Amino acid sequence: MEQTLLDKLEILADSAKYDVSCASSGVNRSNTGALGNATACGICHTWSADGRCVSLLKVLHTNACVYDCAYCVNRITNDVPRASFTSEEVAELTMEFYRRNYIEGLFLSSAVEKNPHYTMEKICRTLFLLRRQYGFAGYIHAKLIPGADPALIRQAGELADRVSVNIELPTVSSLRSLAPQKNPKLLVAPMVQIRNSISGYLEDQRHFRSAPSFAPSGQSTQMIIGATPDTDYQIINTTENLYQKYRLKRVYYSAYVPVNHDARLPALNLSPPMKREHRLYQADWLLRFYRFEAKELLDETHPFFDLEFDPKINWAFHHMDQFPMEINRVDYEELLRIPGIGPTSAQRIVRQRALASISYDTLRKMGVVLKRAKYFITCGGKFYGDIHFHEDNIKDKLRCMENPKPYTQLSLFEGGIGR
Ligand code: SF4
């Protein structure tokens, strides 16, 4: 029986849910004549460069893949429903969703259909139809297919706002083991091309105001965490390398969700390592905004992030000789190392200090969050933590904050109303 557009949409939106470059939020809730519809048809949200939250149609062009990556639900050896959109179908669907105000943009990825070149050509044609035929000016995030012709990669960069190549796994050896058809050199080639093109186009824009833009929201990637024995130390080094070498805007981490039986993979009944993923996002934040280097956060003797304390607090516990820091004396870089103090607070402190020395009360009035920071600072030589300054005491205090008791439903009748 021929598939309808809705059949295809259901299959290809569902297949796209494992890509975490933006989080899916569709749910299956039936509408029994009431107002509203929450059908899981692939609407997800992402944040634009100016901080707005935008809703996107998140679909694959096809899930009929010719590759056999061990961790992937769409691999050729899996018996799953398959579907492929034509470029016209994706473009029309996007426009119909847009006109109905369901979405503000498109997140378009794809399995490898026939070969990388063929797949990339379809993606580019879709982008071309949207931009040139329909005049669609909304946000588009498009996946690049490694191994495709560089001319197609360039065309995608000219038409999309953001592009991404999935690095898939943190190390070359893991990639060889789980995705042997993917060539590590071909994975990075589009990243290099996009980095160079973005710089070239930016240079043109400096000289000619009307010069076109190229992937103005930059490029990103994602890697799977927990499918292989790679350590957090290896992962965070790979991340640092990606930011420095290819000037990526974001690296996304995807806690491995077991979907396939395969001797190379963890058991199917294991839960995705969500806490580990969370720690990696926190460490990633430290690399991007707090001027940390990967080698400061972990090393070969401590290759995994502590699951009890976040990476910044953990760094502080390994450098207790540098604390407490006197808030009126330390420089901006050192302020950023204080747990609880972020770039905004550090900038406010530096500005305020130029006018007068800062007291603990001033810090409060400036809006600096002191819940954690008070255990790592002095103001005018005085320590304001409600304990004796010692690592063990601070750990006890922070442990309660980092691992609060789980919420429980209040009871009306046990020690509640009327007691
Ligand atoms: S190429 Fe992509 S879609 Fe195909 S099996 Fe590998 S991860 Fe899955």
Shape: globular
CATH class call of the largest domain: Alpha Beta
**CATH homology group of the largest domain:** Aldolase class I
Tell me the β content: 5-15%
Q: What are the bound molecules? A: iron/sulfur cluster
Structural class: alpha/beta
Annotation field: number of helices: 14
Summed over residues and divided by their number, the pLDDT gives a mean of 89
* Contiguous uncertain segments of 5+ residues: 23-31, 36-40
Tell me which CATH architecture of the largest domain applies here.
Alpha-Beta Barrel
Please state the CA-atom Rg, rounded to the nearest Å: 25 Å
**What's the domain count?**
2
In this structure, how is the largest beta sheet organized? 8 strands, mixed
In which range does the helix fraction lie? 25-40%
Instruction: Fill in the CATH topology of the largest domain.
Output: TIM Barrel
Order of helices and strands: HEEEHEHEHEHHEHEHHHEHHHEEH
The beta-strand count equals 11
The termini sit apart by 65 Å
Please tell me about this protein's structure.
The chain is an alpha/beta fold and 419 residues long. The protein has two domains: 5-28 and 37-292, TIM Barrel (Alpha-Beta Barrel); 311-402, no CATH class. It has helices at residues 5-15, 87-99, 116-133, 150-159, 172-178, 184-207, 232-246, 274-289, 294-297, 311-317, 332-336, 343-353, 360-365, 391-402, and strands at residues 23-24, 43-47, 53-60, 105-109, 139-143, 162-164, 219-225, 250-255, 325-326, 377-379, 382-383. The strands form two sheets. Strands 1-2-3-4-5-6-7-8 form an eight-stranded mixed β-sheet. Helix 3 links the parallel strand 4 (105-109) and strand 5. The relative contact order is 0.07. The model is unreliable at 23-31 and 36-40 (pLDDT under 50). It binds iron/sulfur cluster (SF4). Iron/sulfur cluster is lined by residues 65, 67, 69, 72, 74-75, 111-112, 179.
